[in-house]
Design brief:
Helix content: under 10%
Structural class: mainly beta
InterPro entries: Cys-rich_flank_reg_C, EAR, EPTP, Leu-rich_rpt, Leu-rich_rpt_typical-subtyp, LGI_related, LRR_dom_sf
CATH superfamily of the domain at 167-180 and 365-498: YVTN repeat-like/Quinoprotein amine dehydrogenase
Low-confidence stretches: 1-28
Radius of gyration: 32 Å
CATH architecture of the domain at 167-180 and 365-498: 7 Propeller
Keywords: Cytoplasm, Glycoprotein, Leucine-rich repeat, Repeat, Secreted, Signal, Synapse
CATH class of the domain at 167-180 and 365-498: Mainly Beta
Number of helices: 2
Largest sheet: 4 strands, parallel
Distance between the termini: 39 Å
Organism: Takifugu bimaculatus
GO cellular component, one term: synapse
Subcellular location: Cytoplasm; Secreted; Synapse
Length: 499
């Protein structure tokens, strides 16, 4: 019995056996590769002991190779390239935790592979091996997983490709804009996608459009204003309106004149009611268009405005003196609601009265003082809200059918935005801070809560918005003290990663 047979069955010594041919198919003598370092070679065999890596040179027509009982911890993706005639391969009893993707590519003649005695981690990096096992004609001895904990001790041979959840995502920096901004809104008008940033120091609403050729965002138009805090687009009957909220000089409404290709101011907003605007929400109820402005002054009043076909008129003042910082429109139990956040009271929930066609105070959210803003999102039909606090913990709450109950808390010193973002099957919550990196959390369906996902370097973020264009998704981030940032949402298949 030859040396290769003894190695396959007995494994009494660590060795490498290489069967070589010194005559090529056309009868010409071919130069035999040098014996690998650490090996003792004869005309037909090579004995390798105490090797820590797979030798770099192999005769192209080798039939069997046994690299066993060594301390090999990693293998190059090209370790066995060119060995098309290899029949038997054993990497048993080494220190391998994973194998590079498609390391057996092109080895169609393989009939047996032995990976026993290694510490294989059955994660996404080995998903390709499971797929290969179900398609190859080669047989594999039983392999047991050393990790991760969910698969520890299980047979790799019993796993299926769908056993692995290998699809993840991340926000990658795409474009940096050289201006500061305090709010951002993405919108569609005339089948095209746009973004508008409120720039308080420059005093403009800065509109950008997507360049389908250069694949970047470029300037579209501007609205000159003073101390701009919100530029809110609103499309009604194919007409684009922009509500421009200013800290000084009053707030105004502009309309896009398509024929003249410019914005025209059509209306001023009552300066006696809106003295210090802080947020704007647009919505429709029973086919009619509304917007509401949260006023943060002591003398102003958060006010709902309604479109009457020619302009917007004051429809309802919600309350005085409470210095509202944010307003959120949402539907609870098929009824329209508003949640007002204030620096002087707990968040207040208003419900729409269909007969009176006005909002009525319903309740507040207990034990939640100093909430700067409230934003809502849905997961599998359930309603949740993110509550932002500058001092203390920001929170996520779930609607239980009668009230919002606390689900999760997040340390948030210096936070002025805690915004949910939905992209396809992914649900995120992005927590900005004036004193630290922005934290991106991703919803974990199994845990029923958010888990840390990523950090973004944005100076003093104030708002986020998502834009879908050309089968791509972008996250737009306003920055009050630095460059406005644009990120692309990327989907990553971890099973395709190489090392």
């Amino acid at each position: 019995m030859g040396l290769s047979d003894r190695g396959w069955r007995g494994r009494t010594l660590p060795f490498l056996v290489i069967a070589v041919s010194v005559i090529s198919a056309d009868g010409l003598r071919v130069r035999q590769p040098r014996c690998p370092f650490g090996c003792t070679c004869t005309k037909d065999n090579a004995l390798c002991e105490n090797v820590r890596s797979v030798p770099h040179t192999f005769p192209p027509d080798v039939v069997s190779l046994f690299i066993e009982n060594n301390k090999i911890a990693s293998i190059s993706p090209n370790a066995f390239r060119g060995l098309k005639g290899l029949l038997h391969l054993s990497l048993a009893y080494n220190n391998l935790e994973t194998l590079p993707r498609d390391v057996f590519s092109g080895m169609e003649a393989l009939t047996k592979v032995d990976l026993r005695g290694n510490n294989l981690i059955c994660d996404c990096k080995l998903k390709w091996l499971v797929e290969w096992m179900h398609h190859t004609n080669a047989t594999l001895d039983e392999i047991y997983c050393s990790g991760p904990p969910s698969y520890q001790g299980k047979r790799l041979n019993d796993l299926l490709p769908h056993s692995f959840d290998c699809i993840t995502s991340e926000f990658a920096s795409y474009q940096s804009l050289k201006f500061e901004s305090i709010s951002v809104e993405a919108f569609t008008f005339g089948m095209d996608q746009y973004v508008v940033f409120a720039q308080p120091f420059a005093g403009t609403c800065n509109f950008l459009e997507w360049d389908h050729v250069e694949m970047t965002f470029r300037t579209y138009d501007t609205i000159e204003s003073t101390s701009t805090v919100v530029c809110k687009p609103m499309v009604i009957d194919n007409h684009l309106f922009v509500i421009v909220a200013q800290l000084f000089g009053g707030s105004h409404i502009y309309k896009r004149d398509v024929s003249a290709n410019k914005f025209i101011k059509i209306q001023d907003i009552d300066i006696l009611k809106i003295r210090k605007p802080n947020d704007i929400e647009t919505f429709m109820i029973e086919g009619e268009s509304y917007f509401v402005i949260a006023d943060s002054s002591k003398a102003g009043s958060t006010t709902v405005y309604k479109w009457n076909g020619n302009g917007f008129y004051s429809h309802q003042s919600l309350h005085h003196w409470y210095r509202d910082t944010d307003v959120e429109y949402l539907v609870i139990s098929n009824k329209a609601h508003l949640i007002l956040s204030s620096s002087s009271q707990r968040p207040v929930i208003y419900q729409w009265n269909r007969s009176q066609k006005q909002f009525e105070r319903r309740t507040d959210i207990p034990d939640m003082e100093d909430v700067f803003s409230v934003k809502h999102f849905h997961v599998k039909g359930e309603l949740f809200i993110c509550l932002t606090r500058f001092i203390g913990d920001s929170k996520v709450m779930r609607w239980d059918g009668a009230m919002f109950k606390e689900l999760q808390t997040f340390p948030s010193r210096g936070s002025m935005v805690f915004q949910p973002v939905s992209i396809g099957k992914w649900q995120y919550a992005i927590l900005g801070s004036d004193y630290s990196l922005t934290q991106v959390y991703q919803w974990d369906a199994k845990k029923g809560q958010f888990v840390p996902s990523q950090e973004l370097n944005i100076q003093a973020p104030r708002s986020f918005s998502v834009l879908f264009v050309d089968s791509r998704v972008f996250l737009l981030a306003s920055s009050f003290k630095g460059k406005t940032q644009i990120y692309e949402h990327l989907i990553i298949d971890l099973s395709n990663s190489t090392f």
